Amino acid sequence: MVVSAVDDLCGVSQTDEAKVNRVCEHLIPDEMSDRLSETFKVLSDPTRIKILFALLQGELCVCEISGVIGMSQSAVSHQLRKLKDLRLVKRRKSSKMVYYSLADEHIIKLLTQGVDHVREEFPGPPSIPALEVESDLYGSR
Q1: Along the 141 residues of the chain, how does pLDDT read in single tens digits?
Q2: Which of 13, 27, 82, 117 is the 20 to 30 A CA-CA neighbour of 44?
């Protein structure tokens, strides 16, 4: 069955002004929608998703992340910078080492909710250990 764009339109032009006004009162400001859009754009990259899921296990340095996802340290560092700029990860420097971790509980929830949504599409997917790990760094889920 082919669905055209016309199928998505109302058959008549009728607006419930009270409903429209009520919804408009609860819309997020443009600055927030822009930032949220940027966040989802950054999350649209499979490499960055892998980095975030690696960090679900806990704090890792660039060298360790590089080994986990099979990319050069330079490439990983570039991706981490993008994630850090949008406050999805944070860094901690210890002597000559730089360690990265997820920024907060919101990021964990965002990732786990995303996986729960995608799992609906795949019958019987394997469990993802990262989602079952309790980390003292982030608190219990």
Answers
A1: 665 666 777 777 788 999 999 999 999 999 999 999 999 999 999 999 999 999 999 999 999 999 999 999 999 999 999 999 999 999 999 999 999 999 999 999 999 999 888 888 886 655 665 555 544 444 443
A2: 27
Amino acid, res. 70: G
Q: Say if pTM beats, i.e. exceeds, 0.90.
A: no
DSSP symbol at 136: T
Cβ-based neighbours of 57, under 8 Å, separated by 6 or more: 130, 133, 135
Domain boundaries, the chain: 30-119
Extract the tokens encoding 57.
């296990």
3-class DSSP assignment, residue 55:
helix
DSSP string, 56-70: TT--EEHHHHHHHHT
Q: What SS3 class is residue 135?
A: strand
The tokens of 4 are what? 């055209």
Q: For residues 89 and 75, is the Cβ–Cβ distance under 8 A? A: no
